[in-house]
Amino acid sequence: MKGNKTDRLIRIASRLLTCPSGQISLTSLAEDFDVSKTVISDDISIIDRSIEQEGLGRIKVDRGRAGGASFVPLMSDDYRESFLSDISETLSHDDRLLPSGLIYYGDILFNPTYAWKLGLVLASDFYDKYPDVVVTSEVKGIPLGMATAQILGVPLAVCRFRNRASDGPAVCVHFATQTGDVRAMYMGTKQIVQGSRVLVIDDFMRGGSTASGMCQVVSEFKAELVGIGVFIASIEPIKKAVERYSSLLSLNMSGEGARVVPSSLYTRGLTS
Q1: pLDDT band at 269 (very low <50, low <70, confident <90, very high)
Q2: Right CATH number for 77-271 from 3.40.50.300, 3.50.50.60, 3.40.50.2020, 3.40.140.10?
Q3: Average pLDDT, integer, range 138-165
Q4: Model pLDDT, residue 98
Q5: How do the domains of the chain map onto residue ranges?
C-alpha cells in the first residue's frame, strides 16, 4: 500500500494519535507502506514538527534495534493558557453557582471534546512520572480519569462508594470527610497491581477528603503514588487533607459570587 506521500503522512499521523504513548515500530511502518525506514523517519519528522506547532505534543522516536515512534502528550504553554482561560470564563458565570460553595461543571467533564483536552493537559503534567495506572472516583471523575489514562496509554481504576456484586472482590478503606463523617471507598482487587505507579485524578477538591481516600486505597494495594491531579480546587480551606497536588483551575469564593481562574495565576504554594 505504497500510496503517495500525503496519504502516507495522514495515515501515520492517525496511527500515532489514536494510540497515544504507545510505540509503533518503524520497521512495520516501512513494510506497511512499502518504503524504506529512512523515508518513514523523514515522515515522522514532518509529523513531529506539525504536532509541536499545534501545541499538542511531540513524536518520540526510539532509535534502538526495535526502533519505534510514539506520540508524547506535551501541551504547549500557550495552548494550555488559552484553553483553561476559556473554561475559567465559562465556569465563572453566576448561573453556575450552587449551594454550599459549589459550581456546576458536569457539562464540561461530560463533553468529550473538553474531557479529551483536559486529559491532555493532565497527561502532559504527569507524563514524566511514568504512571502504570490512573485512579479516580465515581462519578464525575470518570471521564476526566479515562481521558488522562487513554492519553498516557495506561488503564483506569475507579474507586466506588458502594460495592456491587458485578465488581467482584474489593478492598475497602474508610476516610473522614470535611464535616467529620466517615465514608467507605471500594476498589476492585484486580484493578491495581502491587508495586504499580499510580496517578490519582480528582474532579473537584475542597478539603481533599476524597483524594485522601484514594491515596489510602493506593497504600492498601502497596502501590506507589506518583502524583495527584485535580480539575478544580477550592482556595478555601487552604489546608487540605492531602499535602501535595496540582490543580488546573482554582475556585475563589471570597468575593461576590464565584471566580474560577487557572491555578497558575495564584501563588503556587496553594497547590503544591
Answers
A1: very low
A2: 3.40.50.2020
A3: 94
A4: 85
A5: 5-73, 77-271
Structure confidence at residue 14 (pLDDT) = 94
Q: How far is CA 144 from the centre of its chain?
A: 6
- What's the distance, Cα to Cα, between the start and end of the chain in Å? 51
Q: What was the pLDDT predicted at 259?
A: 83
- Whose CA is closest to 253, among 81, 122, 96, 110? 96
Residue 163 CB-density burial (10 A; 0-12 exposed, 13-18 middle, 19+ buried): middle
116-142 exposure pattern, b = at least 16 Cβ within 10 A, e = fewer: ebbbbbbbbbbbeeebbbbbbbeebbb
Cell of 265: 495565576
What is the distance, to the nearest Å, from the Cα of residue 167 to the centroid of all Cα atoms in its chain? 24
CA atoms within 13 A on the CB side of 114: 16
Cell of 26: 518503524
Per-residue pLDDT tens over the stretch 84-117: 999 999 998 888 888 877 889 999 999 999 999 9
For the 5-73 domain, the top CATH level (class) is: mainly alpha
